[in-house]
Amino acid sequence: MRAVTISSFGFLLVIAVTIISFCDGNCNVLCIESERQALLKFKQDLIDQSNRLSSWVEGEDCCEWLGVFCNNLTGHVKELHLGLLSSRPDVHAPHAEWDVEWDVYIRSKLGGKINPSLIELKHLSFLELSNNDFGGLAIPEFIGSMKSLIYLNLSWANFQGAIPHNLGNLSKLHYLDLGHNSLFEDKTLQWVSGLSSLQYLDLSHADLGKATDWLQITNKLPLLAELHLSGCYLYNDPSPISVNYTSLAVLDLSANKLSLVPTWIFIGIHSSSSSTLNWLSNLNQLQFLGLRSVGLQGNLLEIIVPKYLESLCNLRELDLSNNGIVHEVSEIIESLSRCSLDRLESLNMGFNKLSGHLPDKLGQFKNLAYLSLSGNFISGPIPFSIGKLSSLKFLDVLNNRLNATLPQSLGQLGNLEHLDVCNNMLEGHISEMHFSNLTRLRFFRASNNMLTFKPNPSWIPPFHCESIELRNWHLGPQFPQWLQFQKNLSRLDISHAEISIVIPTWFWNISTQLEYLNLSHNQLIGEISYLPMKRTVDLSSNLFIGPLPLPISYLRFLFLSKNLFSGSLSNFLCNSSTKLEALTILDIESNLLSGEIPNCWENWQMLQVLNLGNYNLTGKIPRSLGSMRSIRSLNLRNDNLFGEVPSTLQHLVEVIILDLSENQLTGSISAWIGDKLLNLVVLNLRSNNFQAYIPDQICAINSLQVLDLGYNNISGVIPKCFSNLSAMATKTLYQYVGNFAWELDRINLIPLAALLVMKGREDAYSNTLGLVTIIDLSVNSLTGEIPKELGSLMGLRSLNLSGNFLTGKIPENIGSMEVLESLDLSMNRFHGEIPSSFSNLNFLNHFNLSYNNLTGQIPLSTQLQSFDKFSYVGNHLCGPPVTKTCSRNGETPDVTNGGSSGGKKRSKLNWLYVSIVLGFVMGFWGVVAPLFFIRSWRFAYYQKLEQIGDKLYVFWATIETIEIEDSLINLLAYLVIDRLKLEIWKPLGDFHRITLKLFILTSERPSKWNMIVAKFSGLENIGQ
Q1: Nearest Cα to Cα of residue 586 among 626, 627, 628
Q2: Its principal location (predicted)?
Q3: CA angle, corner 473, sides to 352 and 614, nearest 5?
Q4: How many CB atoms lie within 10 A of CB 296?
Q5: Which of 13, 82, 670, 688 has a CA positioned 20 to 30 A from the CA of residue 954?
């Protein structure tokens, strides 16, 4: 919160008197010996890592010591300034510099304990210990005996426990700040009433939830000018009292539970006679009002705004953000303009439910320096009058529905430093005039609009920004030349900007200062040998070629996926000259790399996300991967890895996502997965050659939300203990990554993501991964019945058991899994009727019971009748949506004794099936048999396939990066490779996938075909 300068504050007189009392260096009075000894005892109990108190030496004049100020007439110690108020690092500093400054700041904190020897400083009036670290100790009781104190600041010093009530004995106290510690007050703030001289009170983030008299007590302080009670768990004071804060200039009640605060502040408390005690006449001195995040609800919002803002004539700062206020933004601005038009300096109404258009009246607040309206539903254009706000330094309208284009008048805001218009619907062309006078602009954020900016190549911008974010702007095809003049740039995002050219050489000169660079989703070409950026680089989804570029050693986040980088991984990962010791995320999936995964992961101890999917990588999973103890997400999907999963992976105890799908891994599913990897949320072993049974230890992973073991050779029964998978057993959505996901989102990086099969299709889940719960055991050799215990997984959203040998009846309680969106039990051996409870599955949008032995009537419900008959084919069911009608008693018509004509038809039909199968077998073996028995033919066949595969590999790798529907391809793989289990077809698998995918692209998606051709030819406008 910004400080407010108020001339009427009495405590400023204290500061002035304090300055006068400082020894100016010419005084000859020495400090009192007893007081010097008291200070030395005080120092003895302190922890001083940075040696701040090195001048505190025996025999020296204590009035010359750091932080000690004496009365230059009497020599008594008057003030102790041992806080760090001016030493906090600048949050806008470059990250590398900030790290260093923060380390110095932390080491500069004093710790230890506070010695009672301070009581001997009888004349001490000023005690400043803020921003230190006293390790959770309680505030010393003896401080309440230091009767001469006028100023006491213990904020941000890591004190804990109850607030000592004897602080109320400090009757001379003008300034008391105990904020931002871990303090609590049991029952009452009555002790504050003794501080009759108090002008400044800050108890922010103390737990005052039980102190219901806070309003009564603070109202009795006649000189109180500033009251800070943010984040104090305050509730509404139940007693209707008359409140009269006549001297109050700053009121901060942010982040509380005060749903009735608007009533108290703006219209007073209603008495039994319905009279109104209007506060407005008593708050005419109010200059700052902070009600951020107080949880305002319902009708009271109508009371707050706009009517009762009209009389706050001295208001300089108003913060009502994060409250869900529902009103027209124009009426609020009109009301504020009636009285505080010439005084208002800061207005924060962010993250409410404001609607309507911004009025032209906005341009008349000539002293407005800070304006935040982000996170609302404001529509219409930004008014041209915005250019009249000559004092404006900060403008934030992020996340609204603003349209039209940016007004050229923005270019007149010569004091503007921060401009954020991200995530709106702005469109049109931007010219150089929009920036003509923005000489002080430091932060320019305008991503996710539909704006076009193509200035003259010789244009030199008047600003020197630290951050520029223009994601989804139309900037290309040329690289923005004006960026070369941004010498202070530390953050740049020009992703999705239609740039299709080689990165110019001058860019690498300015990129050495960049901490965050995002050039993803363009069509940038050429080779890159070196990445000099300091923290984050995202070059994904471009056309870069050549070997992987080597970054500097302290890079943390690197995204190079979906490019055309080639070669092996060894030089990048195992190069001893480049030790990426700080790297946290490495995403290089979907390139043209080849060879084996190197076995040199011992030095990657900081890595938390590793994505090496969608390559032609071969060999076994290296054992050294198990040395990355910090890994959270490991993705090796869709490579050609074989062999067993190494047991060393059991050391990855922090892993959240483990994806080894679509490889050729063998062996059994290891029991140590359930014993050791207890933080798993996603376990994807789909499309491998795992055998044996599902170990019961899997059931111990309480956090597991996605279990995909489909398309393997797993046998045995479905474990009954699946009911212990508690993350799937509750309808409450489980937050899968906690603080780690929040950290990635905070720095605008992609969160942890997974590619999952759900509802019959494969999709990527990132931000919504925490909302997904899946069990997929399809296309295995599972036997037995569905355990009824499975029905207890009430939070499951997708269940796929298709393509097994499961028998028995479908359990009735499956219908109790009410949030199911996808259910596939097809191609098993279930019999009996469809459970009537299935009519409760109201969220189903993918459903398949085909090819079982089910009988009877399909239960009537809105959902079950919405699926076509193919969801039920291959059974003996009746009723809609199938064509068979049920008999009067609701049973299926007799299918075995239906008359001679029917029998003849079925006989002919069965013979038709037999002839088709025989024809297929004869034709198939006519081609395949020679390959089995004639060795030279077989070798020639495989050699030819290998040549074809080499030629098609690069082409196929690129096609795989293009998103198209894969249902036809998956069907082919299912029929030919998985269901027939014919090893002779394995080498043809990729060939058929390529052929079929090319057919889909050329016949149904010609635009996709053009993209492929353009990607390999390097030509532009290949469409025609």
Answers
A1: 628
A2: membrane
A3: 100
A4: 22
A5: 688
pLDDT, position 321? 85
SS (H, E, C) 191-249: HHHHCCCCCEEECCCCECCCCCCHHHHHHCCCCCCEEECCCCCCCCCCCCCCCCCCCCC
Q: Whole-angstrom Cα distance, residue 161 to residue 130?
A: 17
Flag whether pLDDT at 243 surpasses 90.
no
Backbone φ, ψ for residue 168 (5° rounding): -70, -10
- The secondary element (H helix, E strand) that includes residue 740 is helix 738-746
Do the Cβ atoms of 255 and 284 come closer than 8 Å? no
pLDDT score of 753: 65
Residue 260's pLDDT band (boundaries 50, 70, 90)? low
DSSP E strands, 534-635: 536-538, 543-546, 550-551, 557-559, 564-567, 585-587, 592-593, 609-611, 618-619, 633-635
Average pLDDT over residues 195-210: 91
Measured distance CA(893)–CA(885) in Å, rounded: 8
Burial class (CB in 10 A: 0-12, 13-18, 19+), 894: exposed
Cα–chain center distance at 791: 32
Q: pLDDT at position 254, please?
A: 82
Please choose, from the candidates 441, 484, 482, 443, the residue with its C-alpha nearest in 3D space to the C-alpha of residue 463: 441
Angle between helices 935-960 and 1006-1017 (to 10 degrees): 100
Q: Is 640 exposed, middle or buried, given 0-12, 13-18 or 19+ CB atoms closer than 10 A?
A: middle
Q: Between β-strands 664-665 and 706-708, what pairing exists: parallel, antiparallel or unpaired? A: unpaired
Contacts of 459 (CB under 8 A, 6+ apart): 432, 481, 482
Alpha helices, DSSP H, located in 297-376 = 300-304, 329-337
- Say how far apart CA 181 and CA 760 lie, in whole Å: 53
Q: Are strands 46-48 and 110-112 parallel, antiparallel or unpaired?
A: antiparallel
- Return the closest-CA partner of residue 867 out of 850, 891, 892: 850
* Whole-number Å distance between alpha carbons of 351 and 1019: 46
Instruction: Decide if 493 contacts 518 (C-beta within 8 A).
Output: yes
Helix/strand/coil percentages in the chain, nearest 5: 30, 15, 55
- β-pairing verdict for 525-527 and 126-128: unpaired
User: What is the amino acid identity at position 768?
Assistant: T
Confirm if 115 and 42 have CB atoms less than 8 A apart: yes
Judge contact between 563 and 589, C-beta under 8 A. Answer: no
As a whole number, the mean pLDDT across the chain is 80
Give CA separation, 571 vs 420, 544, 600, in Å: 42, 18, 11
* String of DSSP letters for 804-863: S---SPPPGGGGG-TT--EEE--SS--EEPPPGGGGG-TT-SEEE--SSEEEEEPPP-TT
Q: Which of 498-512, 580-594, 949-963 has the lowest mean pLDDT?
A: 949-963
H-assigned helices in 934-988: 935-960, 967-972
Spell out where 385-524 has E strands.
394-396, 401-402, 418-420, 427-430, 443-445, 450-453, 467-469, 491-493, 516-518
Using alpha carbons, list the distances in angstroms from residue 780 to 488, 607, 623, 757, 773: 59, 34, 28, 16, 20
The segment with the largest mean pLDDT, out of 94-108, 226-240, 518-532, 940-954, is 518-532
Encode pLDDT of 408-462 as tens digits.
999 999 999 999 999 999 999 999 999 999 999 999 999 999 999 999 999 999 9
165 has a pLDDT exceeding 50: yes
Output the pLDDT for position 368. 95
Is residue 391 within 8 A of residue 369, CB to CB? The reply is yes
Confidence of residue 56 (pLDDT cuts 50, 70, 90): very high
CA angle, 116 as apex, 110 and 117 as ends, to 5°? Answer: 90
What's residue 248's pLDDT?
Answer: 79
Name which residue leads in pLDDT, 543 or 320. Answer: 543
